[in-house]
Amino acid sequence: MVEKVDPRFKIVSFLILAWLIALSSIRETISFLPLVTFLSLPLFKNFKRIWKILLFADSFLLLVVLSQLLLGSPEVALEVFLRSNLILLLSLSLLSTTPTFELLHALHHLKVPNSLLQIAFLTYRYLHEVRSRYTAAVKSAKSRGFKARTDKFTYQTYGNLIGNLLTYSFLKSERVYRAMLCRGFSGYFPVYRHFKASPKDFIFLALTVAYGAVVVWKF
């Protein structure tokens, strides 16, 4: 169900619910758990990947939680842990179920500045290419017998690698920009397929907002 909801409505629902969770008390935060769990049901098909994402995020969150425990504030530590994980699960269930380009298109309809969307679009589009370039360079270095150590040669090798990536990225951006100009680029990307809201989208938004309102009002 969640995958078929209009991305514009999913973004608005996420922002409202994340705002309510971030400002809620511990009892209100726990009350949001059933809704977030229900919305996250489609993610359980790829449970291993979701589990890795949560563990990676919680590895940074652990320092904050431990600091609060050492300061004698276990309730604050629990609030921070629950809020952060609920918001992360909410973003995964509502945003990761939509292709990146559709999310950017939806943000365009929500009046996000066009320049920011273009930067995000091009960054996402060519980030994988830069990564593949980096992976190829590392494999090439290892095939020549390179082994990472804590010495001057290792630092120099990684410095050269980063410099090559920066040079490649700059030259690639120039070529892409000239190619875009040759194809008539005038400051914005034309979109030929637009979203069309349906009754189920309005129902989804109304139900999620109503749930949040009931939780805040009741507790």
TrEMBL record:
Topology versus the membrane = Multi-pass membrane protein
Q: Which UniProt keywords apply?
A: Cell membrane, Membrane, Transmembrane, Transmembrane helix
Q: Name one GO cellular component term.
A: plasma membrane
Please identify the protein, giving its name as recorded: Cobalt/nickel transport system permease protein
Q: From which residue to which does any coiled coil extend?
A: none
Q: Does the keyword Iron apply?
A: no
Q: Where found?
A: Membrane
Which Pfam families does this one have? CbiQ
Keyword Transferase listed? The answer is: no
Read off the InterPro entries from this record. ABC/ECF_trnsptr_transmembrane, ECF_transporter_component
Source organism (scientific name): Thermovibrio guaymasensis
- What main location does UniProt list? membrane
Which residues span the membrane? 12-41, 53-71, 86-107, 202-218
